[in-house]
Every structure is written in C-alpha cells, then in structure tokens.
## 1
Amino acid sequence: MQIIRKTGAFAAVLVLSLVLFAGCGQSANADKTIKVAASPTPHAEILNSVSDALAEEGWTLEVVEFDDYVQPNVATTEGDVDANYFQHVPYLDQYNQENGTDLVVAGNVHYEAMGVYKGTKKAISELADGDKIGVPNDVTNEARALQLLAANGVLTLKSGVGLEATKTDIVENPYNVEIVELEAATIPNSLPDLAFGVINANYALGAGLTTDDAIVYETADSEAAETYVNVIVVNSENKDSEKTKALVKAVQTEEVRAFILDKYKGAVQAKF
C-alpha cells in the first residue's frame, strides 16, 4: 500500500508538471504573438504582407479586422490587442482628448489620398441646386473633405480654418449643394443617393472603387498628405516593447514600399 501511495503521488506530481509545462509553453507562444487591430483595406492587407517576415524573426502576427473607427482604439486601450493600425494622427489626438486615453504613435506607415467619387453626377459642372454630397461625419475627416471640395471650386470656406473646418465655415456655396454628414464606412454604399461622396481611400478600396470612379484626389503636396499619415498606435507603456519594435521594423521596409506601390497604384503611398 505504501508503494502504491508513492506511485500515485509521483503520478500526480508528473501530471501537474506536464500541465504547468504546457501552460508555460502556451504563455511563451502567446508572448510571441503580435495582435493588431486594423481596418480591412489597406491596413490589414499591408500587415498580412509582413507576416512571413515576422515569422522569420520568431513572431506570430494576428490581425483582427474592424469596420469602424472606434473599436480598434477601445481594444488597444483595454489590452485586447497589442497595437492598432487604421488611423491618422489628428484622429488619434481627437480620440485621446475626448476619451482620456494615452495612445501614442509607434511608427508612420502610409498616406491615403481622399477622393471625390462619382454618385449620380460625373463632373462638378453637372452639380445642380440641392444636390447632396456625402462627407465623413468625424471632425478631422470632415474638415479634410470640405477642404478638398473647396480646392475644386464646389464651395468656399472661411479663411484660415484649415483642417479644422466644419459645415458652419462654408461662406460660399455656388451650386447650393447639401453637405450630408455620414459615417465614413457607409458613404460608398450611399453613392446612388448622392451626387458625389468624399471617401477615405481605405473605404473606397474596400468597396471596390478605383481611380476611374473618382473625379479628383488630394494632391501629394497638399497639407492633408503631410498631416494624415496613417500610423501604428499602441498604449504609451508599450511604445518601446519588443513587440512594438518588431512590428514597426517589419512594416517600414522597402519590400512593403514596393507592395504598396504595386497593389494600390498611387491611391495609397508609403510615408516612412
């Protein structure tokens, strides 16, 4: 009986050791996983292009796709993901201010040219009294859309408002168009009800829109091109972590620059 008890005790210790070892293995694997929240296009596509490169360095990349501009920051703040990649700095600053969060930029990646896309009209000259133009309803992207419309003669904005413009800053509206504020992701599907839609490139690409569907884009030397660089974002305490450094290093390469140029034909441009 004594031998049986010893054997049983040894077996229990062995089983416990195996469980602990397996748990350690799972923890180690989890620690080598970089989980990133991203918009499907082009962000998730760009991230997935570096998956093999990260694997060669011992990292597993897990991309979690979101279709809105809020949940990726929530997931990052709460620690459900290690980083996110979907936004530009003005939007990040606005989000931090409104939500009391401390999310920071880990690295620049790309710039997306916002465009005016055809709806029921094919040229600005076709605009008529009461036509509707859809713009994003978040503060930073709405200002950007209004500036693009102003640059192309659709309307005139109050002098000096820059990238803080709102509908109330419109001082001349020669076509008497109605500016309709919509959630950015919904504008592509709303084009049949709009004369034009001013659309962020990620949503335009995701909806299958091409350069043939747009009448004009922001220029490469515009204020927006320098301001609205899309960035990798992390919690401030993780800015210098191994995961963050590995992710940024993998994305900021000449291979990624070539991937962006080849896949997006100029609608998306590397900015690192």
## 2
Amino acid sequence: MNDETTGRSFMDRMLGRKAPDAGPGEQHVPDAEPAETGKPRSWFQRLKSGLARSSSALGENLTALIRKRKLDDATLQDLEDVLIQADLGVETAVRITERLASERYDKEIDDAELRAVLAAEIAAVLKPVARPLEIDPGNKPHVILVVGVNGAGKTTTIGKLASKFCADGKSVVLGAGDTFRAAAIEQLKIWGERTGSPVIARDQGADAAGLAFDAMREARDSGADVVMIDTAGRLQNKSELMAELEKIVRVIRKQDETAPHDVLLVLDATTGQNAMQQAEIFSARCGVSGIVMTKLDGTARGGILVAIAARHKLPVHAIGVGEGIEDLQSFDADEFASAIVGGAVD
C-alpha cells in the first residue's frame, strides 16, 4: 500500500519520518484536484492518472498483440518491438521476453497475466535505483546542485523540494544560479518567500560560479541545513556551457571539498530518448548522483525512466505528475511499475 493513503507526506517517504505539519510554502501552491467524492486523491491515484497516456499507449498495443495468440517466436519478437517502442529500452524488453519465453513459450497468455509479468519485471529493474534523497546532518550545509536542460523543471523542482525540507523543520538557502534568465531568478525568489528561505541572487548575466560561492558562504555562515543551487539550463551538446557547469562544481569544492553532496539531474519525461543522452552526458561532466523526472503526466513516453534505470543505474529520487507540491513524490518502484501497465496496487 502506498504511504500517501496513510497520511505520510513526501518528506516522510524520503526520510522515513512521521509526517509533520505543513510548511509555509504548501498553503500557497495548488495541489491536485480532489476526486468527485470530495476526498483528495491518493498519490497512487495521481500517479496512475499521470501515467495514463503511457499506460494507455502500451496497453492498446499489448491487447492487440496478445489476443488469441500463443507465445511463439513471432509473437515474442513483436512483443519485444512493442516494449521498445514504448521507450522501455532494449535491456528491459529483452529481459521481459526472455522470462516469458522460459515460462510461457507456445502457451496462450491473457492480458492480465501479461501485465502482471510486465509489472514484476519493470519493478525488478527499478527497485535497485529507487532510493530516498537523504540529507546528511553531518554536512553543514548539505549542498544540492540541480542541473538539466532548459524547460526540464529545475527551478520548480527546487521550490517544491525546499517547501518539503522546510516542512520537515530544516533551514534552507536557495541559490539563483540560473543567471541567464531573469524569470528563473524571480521564480526562485517567489519560492523563497513561500518557504521563508533566503535566496542568494545577482543581476541577470552575473557569474554563476560566483553566485554558487556566495550561496555556499551564506548557508555556512547562517548554519543552514541545506543549500540548493539552481543552474542555467544547458544543452548537453554545448561544450562551453558544460565547461561552465564544471567550473561551478570546482568553486563549490573550494569551500567544501566533499560538496556538492548531491547533483540532481532533472529530466523532462516528454523528451523521451533525448533524456537518455542527457543522463549520459551530465553524468560524465558533473557527476550526477540522482534523478528527478518531471512531466510524466504530459507524455506517452513515461517508459523512458525504465530505460534510463536499466542503462545508467542512477538513483531515482522523485517523480512529478503535475503542478502541485504533492504531485512531486519520492519514487516507488512497485507503484510506478503497476501504474505504467495500468494495474492496481496492493
């Protein structure tokens, strides 16, 4: 059973703690719409709804493929193609078809049985990477650098995480390191006001590495628990911008050689296979430690998270299926696997 139904909040799930009262940021940000019954939807209901496009596209193809057919070589090959087309990745597609071949070859299989196998195998791929984002109290502050391409949702993700950290009683400093966009600076200032967190910002066009240095110093001097540093969106194929990101990391390490303690890569699920390349390049250039995937509710390509997990083995900390704070939640492999195949959760 998912923890949302028992009243546990995002940070409870992330940190394994009892749910505290809502933080100051939560009252300002719209949450998911309530269901027709008037009761708030559980996280799994929101997740399943958010993944509806992905599960519907996959389900229609599976139903058409399996109807009145035995699992012979041709059917298994067609199934592998369907799974790859659903962005689940070659590794996962082969894993699933090999299991079916070993257990059900030349036998009929119905839609429910097939979905159960898919969910089990997808969950098996995802469980090793479903890891909580843990704030180490030994780091003062715990430094989180947030990276990704333009439009992935970095600044919004920072704001939502900051709200959750504050609700958990932690003090947070925000660094407006996306100095290329005035809108990103203003957006982070709004989140700072909502959460009561100081925002270190400079004029548009200011040196991003210097801004990161200032944010680190402010967090250390004020005794903050966490400092989250935004960065400009940069295409992974622009070497000069990636070099600037590397400079930011070097500057951070001048104040704390163990930092950044987390480098979160925010990926937009709607970019599909391009997200796979982003994971590879950003990991190589700035040592990505974990992923947050956003906008799963806006695409039929949610399977790309499975492909990235199978290929890169990067921890997946959280996923987003909407605009509200509670639509960004810690990642649960079983819930995701069940939702993407259109199933229920036990």
## 3
Amino acid sequence: MIKNIYSMIRVSYLLLRQCGIGLEFKRIRHSFGGVYLYIKDLQKYRDIQTGSNFPINSRHLQPYIHDRYEEAGQIGGHYFHQDIWAAKKIKIANPSNHYDIGSRMDGFISHLLVFRDVNFIDIRPMKENIKGLSFVQDDATTLSQFEDGSVESLSSLHVIEHFGLGRYGDPIDPDAHIKFANALQRVLKPGGKLYISTPCGIERLCFNAHRVFNPQSFLNLFPQCKLVEFSCVMDNGEFIEMADIDTVATQTFGLGLFELERL
C-alpha cells in the first residue's frame, strides 16, 4: 500500500514538472535572490544612466533572473559529448554517403552539415529545405525504402530508447527497439559503420520517456555487428573514451556510445 502511494506521488510530481508546476527548491531559492538582485541592478542602472543611448523604459522591461546562477556555456551532458564523438568519427571516415535516423537537427546534424552532406531519415514529414540535407520519410523500424546491404555509414543518437513508447505519437510496441536494431543491421553493407548512442545503466523502462539499457544487453541486439569502440558519459557528466563495456552498467542514467561495424 505504502509503495503504491509513493509511486503515485512520484508520478504526480513528474507530471507536474512536465507542466511547469513542479517544485524545484533550488530554483525557488534562486528566484527570490534573483528578483532582489534584478531590482537592485535596475535601480543602479537608473541612477547612473544619465546621457545613455539606452535609457530604462518600464514598457520594455524583460527580467531574466536565473542566468547569473548558471555555469559558463553549460558545457557537458549527453548531447554535447555524443555529438562531438560521432561527428569526429564521421569526418575522419569520410564515407561517400552518410545517413542519420532521428538525431537532433539543431545539434548533431548541424555539426555534420558544416563539413558534409547528410541524408536524414524520419517517420515525420519535414518541410524545411536545408542546404546539404536530403530527407527520406520512412519508418525506422522497417526502413522499407532501403535495400539489404545498401548503406555504408549510419548514425542514430539518443533515439532507439524512445521507439514504441508513444511519446512522439508513434504506435505502442514493446519490441520496437528490437525491430529498429534488426532494420539497421539489414541495410548496413558488410564493413559499414553504425554510430549509435542510448541511455545506459541499471536496465529499466521509464514509461513513456525512454528505456535505459544494460550496455551488454544493448550489444546483444546487434549480433550481425562487431564492436569497434565503446565510449560513455557517466552520471556525473564525465566523458570516458575507449571505456570498458561494464563501466556504465551501474550508472543511473549514463550514456553509451557504440561504434559498430557490420560483419
């Protein structure tokens, strides 16, 4: 009974956070301090603004009160490390054609477009016309528009953990991640490279956000590939290059970075 009540409270809290109503006590404390400092800075600027080309006008006030508490640049985290890791590898390999499935357009894909053209695959339509980017609309769990062994270079970063959970409007399918892994192996040509990342650690389903994989069970999804390199991002944000496969297995929400080669 107590366990069920705890679960209900936890889920309610997470739902409230998604709606912007959650209690984040550190942010609340910073809010009070930030408001005080904003008013203090506003008054100081007003007192010394004589002759300024940019006088204070109350109609145009736009308070930002949390930036002063953030670290410079906000460097780190899964996306920062994975995007650099994969982009470097693709730049060095320089395949004649590279395909990506579902990675962030305003992160990893924009990294690649700096130095090469990219073929981007997604089940959702895409209206934008971006120089250097070719779009293919396809279901990644089947990749029906691609022949067997037709792709030499493929990436998919922070994507596979979401398939089949309905978060992005996709059909509910507990085996969607398995179907996706099978489709990737089918379309890769022998010797072709796959750069793929996913949350790794204590294996579990966090419905409907994502799955967290044990890194070895994730590798078991790709029997037709060999592991070329495993790197990871730990819970504390540390990036470890050429890591041991078990390094991230005990983490809560680490990130596994897998470079695989089709046999």
